[in-house]
Design goal:
Layout: E1 3-7, E2 10-13, E3 18-25, E4 32-39, E5 46-51, E6 58-60, E7 68-73, E8 78-83, E9 92-100, E10 106-108, E11 112-117
Length: 118
C-alpha cells in the first residue's frame, strides 16, 4: 500500500522560509516522478514543482521559480520542497504527488497546511 506522508507545514511570516518533506513507502521510490501541488478553498489544486525519478530534472510553476526548490533523496524515499521568500499568496494546503515514470500509477498524500502571514 502506497503511503505519502507530508510534514513541515505551519505558520511563517512573509519573507520567511519553510521546508516541506514527503516520506514515501510502499512503492519503488526511485521509479517515481515526485511532485508538489497546492490548493486553497474554492480553487482547483495547482501544480507547484516536480522532480524526475533520477533527480536530474526539475520543473516549477512560474509563480515559485527562484523561490522554491524541490529535491529528493532516493536513499531515504523522501522528497523535499524548500520554500523561501514566502508570500501571503503561498498560503495553501500542499500535497505530495507520486507518478510512476510510465504514467501508470499515481498517489497523493493527505496534505500539509502552510500559512504565511503578511
Amino acid at each position: 500500500q502506497v503511503q505519502l506522508v507530508e510534514s513541515g507545514g505551519g505558520l511563517a511570516q512573509a519573507g520567511g522560509s519553510l521546508r516541506l518533506s514527503c516520506a514515501a513507502s510502499g512503492l519503488p521510490f526511485s521509479s517515481y516522478v515526485m511532485g508538489w501541488f497546492r490548493q486553497t478553498p474554492g480553487k482547483e489544486r495547482e501544480f507547484v514543482a516536480d522532480i524526475s525519478w533520477s533527480g536530474l530534472s526539475t520543473y516549477y510553476a512560474d509563480f515559485v521559480k527562484g523561490r522554491f526548490t524541490i529535491s529528493r533523496d532516493n536513499a531515504k524515499n523522501t522528497v523535499y520542497l524548500q520554500m523561501n521568500s514566502l508570500k501571503s499568496e503561498d498560503t495553501a494546503v500542499y500535497y505530495c504527488n507520486a507518478v510512476h515514470r510510465s504514467g501508470s500509477d499515481q498517489s497523493w498524500g493527505q496534505g500539509t497546511q502552510v500559512t504565511v502571514s503578511s
